[in-house]
Structures are given as structure tokens and as C-alpha cells.
Design goal:
The protein has a seven-stranded mixed sheet, with helices on both faces. A two-stranded antiparallel ribbon has the order 5-8. Helix 2 packs across helix 4. The protein is α/β, with parallel strands linked by helices. The chain has a single domain, classed as Class I glutamine amidotransferase (GATase) domain (Rossmann fold, 3-Layer(aba) Sandwich).
Length: 184
């Protein structure tokens, strides 16, 4: 049975662990470099990207995380996790803008279509999301969302990396979690 590591320095790692268990996978909280040696996949959850980045540096996780991602094992970054993959770890070739919608009061829940992921609509939560302002070569856009007049990618795939600007682990169907576990 594969084990999914969940970076557990700060953020909503518990919700991801519950979603992973729903599909019969084991989860392991990742806090130290040696924890990465015991997992087959990795989720970098949402939270506060600066805090997660500083804690990853403090616990000497930056290079081990880069090595894990470079090994080709599946990795998924949600919200702050996407920011970490793009900016701190420099493994996801997208440009992002933090807190795109402003404060917490501008957060909302909606449904997205992503035929590459599922024939069903995905229930997602935009909680102070980043905006993907630019995708670089070979980045596949899995879903887009129109924020007023701004049409932005909100889910992307690059090699072994899945990145989402939203939270889907809070949805009871966990369609995107299943996609990550079985398709990435």
C-alpha cells in the first residue's frame, strides 16, 4: 500500500490526511527530512506560504523536498502549497501572485469543470487564493476560473506535479484527491 506524505508544518494537513484515508491510502505527516524517505507521494497543503517556507528552511526540508520532487514521485500543492512549489522550491514553472482576492472575507465556494480530471464538477473553495499569472512551457492547464474580468488558470499539471490555487480537500467527494492518488 502506498503512503502519502503530507507536509505538516502549518496549514490544513489534517483535512488532506482524512481525504487520503477515504481512498484507502495511508498518510504520514512530514516534518523532518527523513520523513520523506518513507512516502511514495507528497501533498503540500494550504496555509500561510511564508510561514510554511520559513519552517521548511528551519527544519532543513528545502533541499530534501527538491530532491523528492526531482525523483519523479507525485506531488500536489494546494493554495500555499502551489506558492511553495513555484517560488520557494522553484519546481513548478508558473508565476503566482499571493492573496489574489484580498482578505479572508472575499473567500468563496464554487464548482469548476475540469474534463481532464472528472466528468463531474469539482466543488472547490477559494480561500485567499493565489493567482497563476503566467504558465511556462509544458504546463498543462486542467481548470480555469473567471474572477470578474480575469480568466485565470486555477489547476495545473507539470510532469509529476499537480498545483491548485483552491482547496478541494474540504469537499466530501474529494474528486481531486482521487485524481491525484490514481492519476499523477
Amino acid at each position: 500500500m502506498e503512503t502519502v506524505g503530507i507536509l505538516a508544518l502549518q496549514g490544513d494537513y489534517y483535512e488532506h490526511a482524512e481525504a487520503v484515508k477515504k481512498f484507502g491510502f495511508k498518510s504520514k505527516e512530514i516534518r523532518l527530512p527523513e520523513d520523506l524517505e518513507k512516502v511514495d507521494k507528497l501533498i503540500i497543503p494550504g496555509g500561510e506560504s511564508t510561514t510554511i517556507g520559513l519552517l521548511a528552511e528551519k527544519y532543513r526540508l528545502i533541499n530534501p523536498l527538491k530532491k523528492f520532487i526531482g525523483s519523479g514521485k507525485p506531488v500536489w500543492g494546494t493554495c500555499a502549497g502551489l506558492i511553495l512549489l513555484a517560488n520557494h522550491l522553484e519546481k513548478l514553472p508558473v508565476e503566482v501572485r499571493r492573496n489574489f482576492l484580498g482578505s479572508q472575507k472575499n473567500s468563496f465556494e464554487t464548482y469548476l469543470r475540469s474534463p481532464a480530471v472528472s466528468h463531474k464538477s469539482l466543488k472547490v473553495m477559494f480561500i485567499r487564493p493565489p493567482q497563476i499569472t503566467k504558465t511556462k512551457r509544458n504546463v498543462e492547464i486542467l481548470a480555469r476560473y473567471k474572477f470578474g474580468k480575469t480568466d485565470s488558470p486555477v489547476a495545473v499539471k507539470y510532469k509529476n506535479i499537480l498545483g491548485t490555487t483552491f482547496h478541494s480537500e474540504l469537499d466530501e467527494d474529494n474528486i481531486l484527491t482521487k485524481y491525484f492518488l490514481t492519476q499523477i
